[in-house]
Amino acid sequence: MSRSSPGVARVAAILNFIADHPGQAFALTDLVRALKLSRATCHALLTGLVDVGYLYRTTDKTYVLGPALAAIGRTAADHFSPLQVAQPEMRSLADEFDVVCGAYFLEGDVIHLRERAASLSHIGYPVPLGTRMPLRWIQATVYYARAPRDAEAWAARIDPPLGDDQLTQFRAALEFVRDEGFVALVRRPGVEEGVGMRSGTEDPPVVPQVTIEPERSYPLMALMAPIYDSRNRVMMALVMAGFHGAMDGSALSAAGHRLAQTCERISSFISGRGDAG
Question: What's the pLDDT tens digit per position in 66-85?
Fold first, then answer.
């Protein structure tokens, strides 16, 4: 992974520190002490940031966020979409694994396909962009993995209610997603190959696979992983579907962790914890 220059890191440290303390102004001495910068370096950076309007120097020689930075923040808030970050990652996943990669947003008890990328062999994939479908327990494992109370509340109110076996699988899959960052959905025993999710079907043709043996073959239908915001809430989930044939456990785990790492990278960028590169 490439490293940013020390100068960029120091500028970011100054801006982040001041942004983390809204309503306060800081003198040069405060910033030198807090950020462990040399006085000369800190003064030079502050002067440059004031010159471009990212900071404002008050009459008492303290610093606050400046008007240019505020304007950039407003523009970002008005126009930024997490899909801008996710789209190139989705394209990379689709091409690498020869699948369709979709971004599904949870809207109440419905999941909404708002973006997707398809490999060449899946250009005619039958689930159109904009599709909405009821949230089922197999998908809910991804949206509620880090919110166990919400997961139990959702499971308690859905109609028809989950059976004992489904509830056991649901809880095991929640734990798997928390531990591994993804869930694998495999074709349910007895379901013919080629049968997909159908709206209104209460008994979906897939189940979560919560134990993965390296040498065993799995009829993989999809992989799902969550993307989180700065409040640790799921913004959307990425779904890789359209795998060709069965996959052994080693390959399945590798693909699942590749998806999970992608989603973690996007989550880090969106929440301000890092970049998406």
Answer: 989 888 877 766 656 788 88
Which strands make up the sheet holding 234-241, listed edge to edge? 132-134, 110-118, 100-107, 234-241, 220-228, 183-187, 206-209
Task: Take residue 133 and report the two structure tokens written for it.
Answer: 């479908």
The domains of the chain are located at: 6-77, 81-270
Q: What superfamily in CATH does domain 81-270 come from?
A: GAF domain (3.30.450.40)
User: Which structure tokens are listed for 185?
Assistant: 């959905």
**Segment 222-263, tens digit of pLDDT:** 999 999 988 889 999 999 999 988 999 999 999 999 999 999
Tokens matching residue 11: 């500028």
Where would I find the H helices in the chain?
6-19, 28-35, 39-51, 67-79, 82-97, 137-143, 148-157, 164-180, 249-270
